[in-house]
């Protein structure tokens, strides 16, 4: 895996080009010299973690032949007050939609992601306490 990040030369905006040839723009807050034109790098880290775990949960449920039709994860993060301002607490709330999904199957998928598959959340667990909960919505 690779990525190249380049400063645009304008304020605090950066463009990341991923190894899969996609681009993502990042910008800083105005008080840090940015123009608030794009997500902050730490917001993208949080979004990537949410995407990583949601991917796992959907894949695990599909492989188990569960009728999953939707998965949304809301993440709340707290950061340290002093530098480095690492994440210190993350809460993941999953909203999984499907037909006759069993709570045990959803809980198991979330646990497998948390304990084994989601590299992003496993890395963040080195500095942050991570909690999870979920709700099931009947499709």
TrEMBL record:
Query: What highest taxon heads this organism's lineage?
Result: Bacteria
User: Which InterPro entries does the UniProt entry name for this protein?
Assistant: KH_dom-like_a/b, OsmC/Ohr_fam, OsmC/Ohrsf
Extract the signal peptide range: none
Cross-referenced Pfam families, in alphabetical order? OsmC
Q: Which PANTHER family match?
A: PROTEIN YHFA
Q: What is this protein called?
A: Protein YhfA
